[in-house]
Specification:
The protein has helices spanning 13-24, 43-76, 103-117, 122-129, 133-140, 166-181, 239-255, 257-263, 271-294, 299-338, 340-343, 349-359; strands spanning 2-3, 32-33, 38-39, 90-93, 98-101, 148-151, 154-157, 194-196, 203-208, 211-216, 237-238, 360-366, 369-374. The strands form five sheets. It has a three-stranded mixed sheet, covered by helices on one side. A three-stranded mixed sheet has the order 8-12-13. The longest helix has 40 residues, at 299-338. By secondary structure, the protein is of the alpha+beta class. It is built from twelve helices and 13 strands. It folds into three domains: 2-76, Resolvase, N-terminal catalytic domain (Rossmann fold, 3-Layer(aba) Sandwich); 90-181, Putative Large Serine Recombinase, Chain B, Domain 2 (Hect, E3 ligase catalytic domain fold, Alpha-Beta Complex); 194-374, no CATH class. α4 (122-129) packs across α5 and α7 packs across α8.
Length: 377
């Protein structure tokens, strides 16, 4: 057998020696390497083959290591590593070495994100956009969308343009994590939301003949890890009773904005205006105190007071930022609720469950009392 170079016959020393000793020699086949200028039909060739196989393997491993280092350096510098599949929704610019967004695909991605956050599953989205379920999941959860470059177990800042914000990406991950936790509850509207007011244990759904009931996990002694109090005697409920109470309150808020505001603790006064007025007053005080310093009046005391006012102003600016964020979140909550009474029966189960997850923190049952606690964002 003739090869141009030794490392063309096999990728490893072990395989090379196996072929020569167990296959070629067994059938009296000579092995000749043109590049290394030797053959196994001579004693010297037989001795050299093992030595050269070691160096051939060393060369390959060195090349691989250099390639890995090069790929990591590219990622570390913010460039796409090249080769392989380019992540959706980008194309690879070989000249610049970066990813470039494809507008049409970015639009598809945004639609997929909207559907996912509104309650649709990866499978549902896949049917709509004609993609495999696993592909939808991979594309929605890709950190490359935020302008980052993943390599192995590390993440680097990329030179490419992000197609979604980091805040939106966090919301996608948060939603995915929440859904992963409640996969077992996919058939029930309030699973994981109900807590016992006596012992603190979770309530579970269970079929009871033709009925579907809810009761505290402490009362199911077969699952000891869920027991909070073996003597818990909190009331058992038919599922529809609890769900009706929750929906009645949600539907009531959809018809009465004032009830929604009082339930979600939304102040009737303009907090933002008050904070802006207070910030303006602090700015005036700081300006006056700076004049004192320029006139060399009580410099130390005045500087200390300015520092206190600046800290207070920073606190107000944070409250303003939080206020705007809360205002936007409250708008989302109200938009979800205001049309519920007319659209609830038209929704898929996933959409209903998504709304419950977004709005409700927990439901506490204590005998005949049902208390609903909302997520006040």
């Amino acid at each position: 057998m003739i090869v141009f170079k030794l490392d063309r016959i096999s990728r490893s020393q072990k395989d090379t020696l196996y072929l020569i000793e167990e296959v070629f020699n067994k059938y009296n086949v000579g092995f000749i390497s043109m590049r290394e200028n030797f053959d196994t039909t001579s004693p010297f060739g037989k001795a050299m083959i093992g030595v050269l196989s070691v160096f051939a393997q060393l060369e390959r491993e060195t090349i691989l290591e250099r390639t890995r280092i090069g790929l990591r350096k590219r990622a570390e510098s913010g460039y796409w590593r090249g080769g392989g599949k380019v992540p959706f929704p980008y194309r690879y610019d070989k000249k610049e070495g970066i990813l470039v967004p494809i507008p049409e695909q970015v639009e598809v991605l945004n639609k997929m994100i909207t559907m996912y956050l509104s309650g649709k599953s990866f499978n549902d989205i896949g049917k709509i956009v004609d993609m495999d379920e696993s592909l939808v999941e991979k594309r929605l959860l890709s950190i490359t969308n935020t302008g980052m470059i993943p390599y192995k177990n590390e993440i680097f800042k990329g030179k490419h343009k992000p197609v979604i914000s980091k805040e939106l990406y966090k919301e996608i991950l948060k939603t995915n994590k929440a859904r992963s936790k409640v996969k077992y509850a996919k058939h029930y509207l309030l699973s994981g939301k109900i807590r016992c007011g006596h012992c603190g244990g979770k309530y579970r759904y269970q079929k009871w003949g033709k009925r579907l009931i809810m009761y505290c996990y402490s009362q199911q002694h077969s699952k000891k890890k869920y027991i909070h109090d073996e003597n818990c005697k909190n009331k058992r409920w038919d599922t529809f009773e609890i769900e009706d109470i929750v929906l009645e309150q949600l539907f009531s808020m959809s018809l009465d904005e004032n009830l929604f505001k009082s339930t979600f603790n939304i102040a009737s006064v303009n907090i933002e205006k008050e904070l802006l007025n207070k910030k303006e007053q602090i700015n005036k005080q700081i300006y006056n105190l700076i004049n004192f310093i320029s006139n060399d009046i009580a410099v130390d005391e005045t500087s200390k007071k300015i520092k206190e006012l600046e800290n207070e102003r920073n606190s107000i600016e944070k409250k303003l930022k939080d206020s705007k964020k809360n205002e936007q979140t409250n708008k989302i909550s109200f938009n979800m609720i205001k049309s519920l009474s007319s659209t609830w029966n038209l929704m898929t189960f996933e959409e209903k469950r998504s709304i419950i997850d977004y709005l409700i923190k927990e439901i506490v049952i204590e005998n005949n009392k049902v208390s609903i606690y909302y997520k006040i964002h």
